[in-house]
Specification:
Blueprint: E1 3-8, H1 11-21, E2 25-27, E3 30-32, E4 36-40, E5 46-49, E6 74-77, H2 82-92, E7 97-103, H3 108-121, E8 127-129, H4 137-145, E9 148-149, H5 154-182, H6 197-213, E10 223-228, E11 231-237, H7 259-269, E12 275-285, H8 293-304, H9 308-320, H10 340-349, H11 356-364, H12 398-413, E13 419-430, E14 433-444
Helix pairs in contact: 1-4, 3-5, 8-9, 8-12, 9-12
Length: 461
C-alpha cells in the first residue's frame, strides 16, 4: 500500500501531527500509520559550501583571488545532525513512499530546509505543501484536507535559496577582502563581513559616534501657577512664534536657551493678572493594528522589558507547545478577508475566560464585520497577524501568560469603537506672554475599556 511521507521541521511538530491525525505507531525518530509516515528535520541539516575545485585556501586570501563567485554551490551535511539526514534519505527512498508532504514551518526558512533535503537526496517524487497558521489539532486536520501543490510555494523556496546564496557571497567576498586589506602589513587579521551583520554594526557605530559627539546644553522653562474661580491650575510658557528647524532638533517652543531671557519673562509676569482663552475639541483614538512579530516585540519590551529574542521564544512556545497563538514569524498586521467566521469562533471560545465580558460585547454588538483595517488580503504576505486560537491556555508560566494577554487584548480591542476624548487647550496671557495648559478628558473609553480604562465621574476629574 502506498504512503505519504510527512517531513516536519522539528520533532515536536512531527509528534503533534501524528497525534492530530491519529492511528500511528512510534518508531525511532518517526511515526507510521496505514496512510502516512511522519518524521522531521531538526532545523537545518545541510549547509552551502563552495565546490572544492573553486575553493581558495586561507593562505591565498588576497585581492587577486577575488571575487569568489562559483558557478554553483554544493551542500554538505551538518555533522551533528547527519544521522537525522540519513534517516530522512532512507524514508524518502522507500518504495512504498509515493508522495512527500512538506510540513516544515510555513515560511521562507521552512521552504529552504525542505528544498535542501530534496536536493541532497535527488528525488523526483511529487511534493505537496502543508501550510499551517496555527498548531491546534483542528487546524492540523483541516490543513491536510487542503494541501497545496508545491508549485504554489516554489517562488518562496527560490527566494530562500537566493537569500542563502547571497548571504554566502557577501560574507565570503566581504570577509576575504577586508581580511586581505587588514593583513597587508603582515600577519593574518581576520575581519568578518555579513549581509546583516555589517549594516547592523554600522548603525551601532553611527549611533555611538552621535552619543560621543553630544554636548549637553542648558535650557530654561518657565512654569506659572494661576488662580481662578474654580481652583488653581498651572501653565507653561511657550514661544507662539516658534518655527521648527530640522537643523536644530533640540529646539522646542517651551525652551529658552538664555537664562537672562528666562529671568526677564519671569520678572515681567510675576504677580500679574492674566487673560484666558480656551478651546475644546473632540478627538478620537483608534486601536492600534493587530500584532506582527516586530510590533509585538516592541510592546513586550516597553511593557515588560522582554528582549526581542525572549519575545520570539515565548511566542514560538505559545504557538508550538501550547497552541494558543497563531504563527508568530509574520510581518502582517491584518487578517484574511474570509476569516470573519473564524474570528467569531475564537471570540466564542473566549466567552468563559477572563476575557469573556469583552468577547461577548463584541459578538452582541455585531462589531465583527468586513473592515479593510482588520480584514485585508492585500496586507497579508505568507502569514496573517498574530491572534489567539480557539484553544484555552493552560499551564502557562508567568511570562508566557503576559505575552498571551498582550495578544488577546489587542485582538479583542481591535473590534471595539474608537476611544473618544475632549481635548481642552487653555492659553493664559500675562503681560502678553503666553502660557499653555492642556487637558484631555475621556468621554467614551471605546477599545481602551479592554485595558481597564473608564470614564471618571465628574467629582473625580
Amino acid at each position: 500500500m502506498s504512503k505519504s511521507l510527512i517531513i516536519a521541521e522539528k520533532p515536536s511538530v512531527a509528534a503533534d501531527i501524528a497525534r492530530a491525525l491519529g492511528g500511528f505507531t512510534k518508531h525511532t525518530d518517526y511515526f507510521e500509520s496505514d496512510q502516512y509516515v511522519v518524521s522531521s528535520a531538526v532545523g537545518h541539516l545541510l549547509e552551502l559550501v563552495i565546490p572544492e575545485e573553486y575553493e581558495v585556501k586561507r593562505g591565498k586570501w588576497s585581492f587577486a583571488n577575488l571575487p569568489v563567485i562559483p558557478p554553483h554551490f554544493d551542500l554538505n551535511p551538518i555533522e551533528k545532525t547527519s544521522a537525522r539526514l540519513k534517516l530522512l534519505s532512507k524514508l524518502i527512498k522507500r518504495k512504498d513512499i509515493e508522495t512527500l508532504i512538506n510540513a516544515c514551518d510555513a515560511g521562507r526558512e521552512g521552504e529552504l530546509i525542505f528544498y535542501y533535503i530534496l536536493r541532497h537526496v535527488g528525488t523526483s517524487k511529487p511534493v505537496k505543501r502543508l501550510w499551517l497558521q496555527s498548531m491546534t489539532p483542528d487546524a492540523i486536520r483541516d490543513g491536510f484536507t487542503r494541501l497545496l501543490d508545491n508549485s504554489a510555494v516554489e517562488s518562496l523556496a527560490e527566494a530562500a535559496v537566493s537569500r542563502s546564496e547571497s548571504d554566502w557571497l557577501v560574507g565570503i567576498n566581504g570577509t576575504r577582502a577586508m581580511t586581505a586589506f587588514n593583513s597587508q602589513e603582515g600577519g593574518f587579521h581576520k575581519t568578518t563581513v555579513g549581509r546583516v551583520q555589517t549594516p547592523t554594526l554600522a548603525i551601532l557605530v553611527e549611533r555611538e559616534e552621535k552619543i560621543k559627539k553630544f554636548r549637553p546644553q542648558n535650557y530654561w522653562e518657565i512654569h506659572g501657577t494661576f488662580e481662578a474661580s474654580k481652583g488653581i491650575y498651572t501653565g507653561r510658557w511657550f514661544d507662539d512664534k516658534f518655527n521648527k528647524d530640522k537643523a536644530a532638533q533640540e529646539a522646542k517652543p517651551e525652551r529658552l536657551w538664555e537664562q537672562k531671557q528666562a529671568e526677564a519673562i519671569h520678572g515681567k509676569c510675576q504677580g500679574k493678572p492674566g487673560h484666558v482663552s480656551e478651546e475644546s475639541k473632540p478627538s478620537k483614538e483608534i486601536c492600534p493594528l493587530l500584532y506582527d512579530l516586530t510590533s509585538l516585540q516592541r510592546d513586550a519590551n516597553s511593557r515588560f522589558g522582554f528582549s526581542a529574542k525572549t519575545t520570539l521564544g515565548l511566542a514560538q512556545a505559545l504557538y508550538e507547545k501550547h497552541k494558543v497563538l497563531t504563527y508568530p514569524r509574520t510581518d502582517s498586521r491584518a487578517l484574511p478577508e474570509d476569516y470573519i467566521a473564524t474570528v467569531k469562533d475564537t471570540l466564542l471560545s473566549l466567552e468563559n475566560t477572563d476575557y469573556g465580558k469583552f468577547a461577548r460585547q463584541v459578538l452582541a454588538s455585531g462589531w465583527v464585520v468586513p473592515n479593510k483595517r482588520i480584514f485585508n488580503n492585500a496586507k497579508i504576505s505568507d502569514h496573517f497577524a498574530i491572534i489567539p486560537t480557539s484553544l484555552s491556555p493552560t499551564k502557562l508560566n508567568e511570562i508566557e501568560a503576559k505575552l498571551y494577554d498582550l495578544v488577546t487584548k489587542r485582538f479583542l480591542a481591535i473590534f471595539f469603537p474608537a476611544a473618544e476624548f475632549l481635548v481642552t487647550t487653555r492659553i493664559t496671557r500675562v503681560e502678553n506672554e503666553p502660557f499653555k495648559t492642556e487637558g484631555k478628558v475621556m468621554v467614551n473609553p471605546g477599545w481602551q475599556a479592554v485595558y481597564g480604562k473608564s470614564v471618571k465621574p465628574d467629582d473625580q476629574e
